[in-house]
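Entry details:
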Amino acid sequence: MSSIVTGSAGSELSASPWRVRSILAVGLFGLLIASAAAFWAGPARAAERVHVAVFSPEPVGDPFWARTLDFMEAAAADLGVFLESHHADGDLDAMRAQIERVLTRNDRPDYVVFPASERVGPYLLDLAERYGVYALLMNAGLSDDQRDVTGGPRVRYSRWLGQITPDDLLGGYLLARNMFRYAHGRGLTGPSGRIQLIGMTNSAADERALDRIAGLELAAKEYYRGDIAYMGLAGGSKSKAQQVLQRGYEANPGATLFWSTDDMMALGMIEALTKRTRRLPGSDVIVGGFYWSPWALQSMVDGRLSFLMGGHFMTGGAAIVMLYDHAMGKDFAAIGKEQRLGFGLLHAGNVRQLAPVLGQRNWSWVDFRRFSRALNPERGDYNFSASAFLQARKQ
């Protein structure tokens, strides 16, 4: 697969030609050629490679985005899609400039893919609409108030095809439910006989974190002996999580469950429990969080982190499948313009088998063609999930 990678300055790190166009006729055949060109400009592009540009808000090498792009590249290679990637180095103004620069090129892509991070989504969708390029939101969608204005995909912005995002509410619910059940089975209750949980979140405004907390709240209501005793705010920082946990634990010394919206805060909670309390993570207290980072995977293997939700970097591969199908005339709108990807849950029973797989960056063994509705007309829904991708090995 050919690819282009650029940083925030737009410098090309590697490149190779992606399409060759030629003018085949003149004179009396001009009208015929113009008609054919108009036909091939539509969504079905079987005659030439589909060209997708993806924009990361983070720098090259960011752990999450590196894995997301690895997964996208494997999917693109499988489906014959040309993929170029751009990195904004944490600067959303640079990301806006990158997208506008790509959309105004002579060789503009057929599709642009980006997250609606930090409320820039509507502006970027407006750019895609203005320049007539299809857009797909990936990993992070619009906030509720933004959706009230835009009306959702293909309403105000006809070029906004849809989005693929992880099911954060269900992920938060399943993580908490498994933790409550495990604690009950181990008899890890507080002095009152109820199971107390201390939670940690990175932000009080982040839509994904709020959805995960909503899932936690649903699980606590469902589980009649479970309580959310404290919810701390640590900004995604490992060191901050240690400080916040200390305050929460002092107020709730009977807590036995420690739940986090990401892995770094979960690791901070583990360190604080190990250094400042007599509790032993993985034994008499249970810690769970999100993201399959190398550090979290190692903590799982060591037995200190008990539950870990992850796999949302796979939204990148799902995005490539959706756009390929759209280009081949199998529009995903027929089954839903907004697709969800289900998280995968790591625990003591599967982590030693899966950790080596999840720790590598080569995803060429995944059969992405299996997920395409254009290539598999008998498929109903996509069924995008971490477990489905991990089980889709090439024969």
Observations:
- The chain is about 40% helix and 15% strand.
- The first strand starts at residue 3 and ends at 6.
- Residues 169-310 form a domain with the Rossmann fold fold (CATH 3.40.50.2300).
